[in-house]
């Protein structure tokens, strides 16, 4: 709306300029039937066009120069998000304090991805494909200039990491339980029509807030979250407009609010808490980078955890281990069980049917009779956990499919990554 009003003002100014510069003098009017008069009119028209272009360019430049449009300048500069954009942001290190490489399976890379799957791998710009089975590295392949150490953006897979952080905060006593009201941390979220907004509502994307999850518009709050420099303004600017706990509506702003709650409850930066509670105990090989909104600012909790395929696989292994690592219980099994189960009491608003695919910031699907919880990012970032196969599959890349399966409504490229894995698993 701000842009519409601004462009309207610019248009009026341009119209005034056109009238002023094109209105001929009396003597010019008397000569309108002469060649000279026609030339004068062409001159006036040419000058008016130049004025309009000048005023329009200056107006747009002035609009973009407004401090509130910092995100828009960056969006126009960098366009759509990419998997390797972390250098354009400030980042906070998620320290890997006790690195340990995966043990190699005896069958490590003895098989290759079957030829019939490779066109799809290449079409969607796959850069990494990793399979862990029986807690060992079974298979890995990289494309372009990517390697086992290459950082790539998690995008919305980070939402699952934030869910884990909430679970740890409950285990640590910083949060009572998932039904604790958000207002205990931030009183401005008072609830809707007498019903309190709780952490469960945030975790299950049933908050009933007005956040518009739009990826193609440069003016959407999603774009502001990604390219902007004030995550707090957007997260705390969300309005409660509907009863929470009724409809599943996917909203990144809700996860960002969860990130602020973790920070408020624990007294630690989100990156530091994740490093201490997860990244170091899981023996990640490389330190990760979590992109911030500005220098010394807040993590983009809803996205932008930058790591490599081998270390992303550790999140899946944690689920296989029921929250344990090296005999140490890192997170409650009960929390993980609830996090990776869909809340079927919710209505999937876009589909108009019960939610069977989303838990606490985790997606869930049924594949050939196997229940698979998984992490998912917008450009085809995936970590699949297959308990029946004691396996984890990681796929990173530049794109995912634009078409969705009819029955479970997930991007249909997922079938490629799972089908290929079935041929590679022992």
Characterise this structure.
By secondary structure, the chain is an alpha+beta fold. It is built from 14 helices and 15 strands. α1 (2-22) runs antiparallel to α3 (35-65). The radius of gyration is 26 Å and the shape is globular. The termini are far apart.
TL;DR of this structure?
With 426 residues, this protein is an alpha+beta fold. It has 14 helices and 15 strands. It has helices at 2-22, 26-30, 35-65, 70-78, 118-123, 157-171, 199-203, 221-227, 231-235, 252-266, 270-279, 309-320, 333-339, 413-424; strands at residues 91-94, 126-133, 136-142, 152-153, 247-248, 288-291, 305-307, 324-325, 328-329, 347-348, 353-354, 363-367, 370-377, 381-386, 391-397.
The main sheet comes to: 6 strands, antiparallel
Overall shape: globular
Order of helices and strands: HHHHEHEEEHHHHEHHEEHEEHEEEEEEH
The end-to-end distance, rounded to whole angstroms, is 57 Å
Round the mean pLDDT to the nearest integer and report it: 89
Number of strands: 15
| Number of helical segments with 4 or more residues | 14
Label the structural class: alpha+beta
Low-confidence stretches: 1-7, 25-32
Strand order of the largest sheet: 3-2-15-14-13-12
Strand content: 15-25%
What portion of residues is helical?
A: 25-40%
Q: Nearest-angstrom radius of gyration?
A: 26 Å
């Amino acid at each position: 709306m701000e842009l519409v009003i601004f462009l309207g003002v610019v248009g009026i100014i341009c119209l005034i300029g056109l009238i002023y510069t094109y209105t001929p003098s009396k003597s010019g009017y008397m000569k309108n039937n002469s060649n000279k008069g026609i030339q004068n009119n062409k001159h006036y028209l040419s000058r008016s066009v130049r004025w309009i272009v000048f005023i329009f360019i200056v107006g747009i430049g002035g609009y973009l120069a407004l401090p509130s449009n910092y995100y828009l300048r960056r969006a126009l500069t960098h366009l759509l998000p990419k998997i390797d954009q972390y250098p354009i942001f400030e980042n906070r290190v998620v320290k890997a304090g006790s690195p340990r490489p995966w043990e190699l399976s005896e069958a490590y890379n003895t098989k290759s991805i079957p030829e019939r799957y490779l066109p799809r791998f290449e079409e969607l710009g796959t850069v990494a494909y990793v399979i862990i089975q029986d807690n060992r590295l079974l298979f890995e392949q990289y494309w372009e200039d990517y390697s086992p150490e290459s950082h790539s953006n998690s995008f919305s897979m980070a939402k699952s990491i934030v869910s884990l952080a909430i679970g740890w905060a409950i285990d640590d006593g910083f949060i009572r339980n998932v039904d604790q009201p958000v207002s205990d941390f931030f009183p401005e979220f008072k609830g809707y029509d007498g019903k309190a907004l709780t952490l469960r509502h945030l975790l299950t994307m049933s908050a009933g807030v007005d956040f518009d999850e739009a990826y193609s518009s440069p003016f959407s709050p999603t774009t502001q979250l990604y390219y902007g420099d004030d995550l707090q303004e957007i997260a705390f600017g969300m309005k409660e407009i509907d009863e929470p706990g009724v409809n599943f509506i996917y909203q990144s702003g809700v996860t960002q609010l969860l990130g602020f709650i973790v920070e408020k409850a624990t007294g630690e930066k989100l990156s530091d808490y994740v490093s201490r509670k997860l990244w170091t105990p899981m023996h990640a090989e490389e330190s990760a980078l979590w992109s911030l909104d500005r220098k010394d600012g807040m993590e983009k909790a809803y996205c932008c955890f930058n790591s490599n395929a081998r270390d992303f696989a550790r999140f899946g292994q944690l689920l296989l281990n029921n929250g344990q690592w090296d005999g140490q219980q890192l997170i409650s099994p009960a929390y993980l069980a609830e996090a990776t189960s869909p809340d079927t009491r919710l209505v999937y608003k876009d589909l108009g049917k019960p939610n069977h695919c989303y838990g606490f910031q985790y997606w869930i699907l049924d594949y050939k009779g196997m229940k698979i919880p998984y992490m998912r990012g917008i450009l085809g970032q995936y970590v699949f956990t297959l308990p029946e196969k004691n396996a984890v599959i990681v796929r990173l890349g530049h794109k995912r499919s634009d078409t969705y399966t009819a029955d479970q409504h997930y991007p249909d490229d997922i079938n490629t990554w799972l089908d290929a894995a079935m041929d590679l698993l022992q």
